[in-house]
Write a structure and sequence with these properties.
Elements: E1 5-6, H1 12-21, H2 27-38, H3 52-61, E2 62-63, E3 68-74, E4 80-85, E5 91-98, E6 103-106, E7 110-111, E8 129-130, H4 133-151, E9 157-160, H5 170-181, E10 193-197, H6 201-209, E11 215-219, H7 225-231, H8 240-254, E12 258-264, H9 272-284, E13 289-294, H10 308-320, E14 325-328
Parallel strand pairs: 1-2, 6-9, 9-10, 10-11, 11-12, 12-13, 13-14
Antiparallel strand pairs: 3-4, 4-5, 5-6, 7-8
Helix pairs in contact: 1-2, 4-5, 6-8, 9-10
């Protein structure tokens, strides 16, 4: 084994081979594997039922590059935002959103983002790199520990709605979810996980081919190509028609829930005509819910959220046409932890 091998890239059989190669017992591999995934150890020193000699030997042969919590802020509404530091000095953010019924972790999949959506703070950052699967796992594990410590209950839900586009880091996101849902890891139900995408049609279809068990959310945010092109450049190569086809393909192959996300922007996408266009899309996609989201201000963007009357008229039109709609009120706005605000601001 190389001295720079990340131990978390090894399967259990590979760990067993390693312990056999150093003349140790196979069950040490099981103990080590449990420390890595079920107990979310962040260093070899954490592995207290291994001898000190063995822990030194592991540290000499492997790395364990876990992310660390750099800062944590708490909002007036109880939302916690954490800035995590990666092994190579980059920062990402994750958010813990507590409610009476559930505690949700909002996690990042990339360091920065390449999609440049005009209403999103992360979109104004340069994409440095994809997060590795174990770094994504670390966010969930550490937010779960925060949830237990602060609110005395485990995470109930996970949403991939933090920094980055999950489907442009496809392999790492799916591998992280596999570890999060495995009985050898955190044991969470995939039905409690939602992956949100700005709309990469080819990869949405791949999710269907891979028959994933988690739910999908599409960040639609405009119901015509002309408007969506303006605020989400990805639409130029993944237009609404292509996304409708991809979402139907995904549902046909998985039968998992699909949500449409729609941020209301004053005088941009908040008219009754926009609502009617959204109704038409809703009828073409097997979606179970439209989330209407209030816009959260960011630096360098001129958008503002519509007034309550406009929001009400918009949602009333959807309800009138039998759209299952929910207005999602933002959490953590006072600490820049709300939808679209994650940008590594301390």
């Amino acid at each position: 084994m190389s001295a720079v091998t990340n131990i978390r890239t090894l399967s259990l059989p590979e760990l067993k081979e390693y312990f056999e190669s150093i003349g140790d017992k196979k069950f040490r591999a099981i103990q080590t594997y449990e420390w890595i995934w079920k107990k979310s150890a962040t260093s070899f020193d954490d592995m207290s039922n291994l001898s000190k000699e063995l822990r030194i030997k592991l540290a000499a042969h492997f790395t364990l590059p876990a992310i660390t919590t750099d800062t944590t802020q708490i909002s007036g509404d109880g939302t916690l935002k954490s800035r995590f530091k990666t092994f190579d000095g980059h920062f990402i953010e994750g958010v813990l959103i507590p409610t009476e019924k559930r505690n949700t972790a909002c996690v990042s999949s990339q360091i920065g983002c390449s999609l440049t959506c005009s209403f999103c703070a992360t979109g104004k950052m340069e994409r440095k790199r994809n997060l590795n699967f174990d770094e994504i796992y670390d966010q969930v594990a550490q937010l779960n520990q925060q949830s237990e410590k602060v609110y005395n209950k485990k995470l109930s839900n996970i949403v991939f709605m933090g920094m980055g586009e999950p489907l442009l880091n496809y392999a790492n996101v799916l591998q992280a979810i596999d570890k999060i849902t495995s009985h050898e890891g955190l044991g969470m139900s995939p039905k409690r996980i939602t992956v949100s995408t700005a709309g990469v049609a080819k990869m949405i279809k791949k999710l269907g081919d891979d028959k994933v068990k988690f739910n999908l959310a599409l960040s639609l945010h405009a119901a015509s190509d002309k408007k969506r092109d303006t605020i989400m450049p990805i639409n130029e190569s993944n237009n609404i028609e292509a996304l409708i086809e991809a979402l139907n393909y995904f549902y046909e192959h998985t039968k998992n829930d699909i949500t449409l996300e729609y941020i209301l922007l004053k005088d941009v996408n908040d008219s009754i005509e926009d609502a009617e266009d959204l109704v038409k899309i809703y009828r073409k996609v097997p979606t179970h819910l439209v989330n209407v989201i209030e816009y959260n201000p960011i630096e360098g963007a001129a958008f503002i959220k519509p007034d309550e009357d406009t929001t009400q008229l918009f949602t009333d039109h959807l309800v009138k046409h039998r759209v299952n709609v929910r207005v999602r009120r933002s959490r953590g706005k006072d600490i820049d932890a709300a939808c679209g605000q994650l940008a590594n601001k301390g």
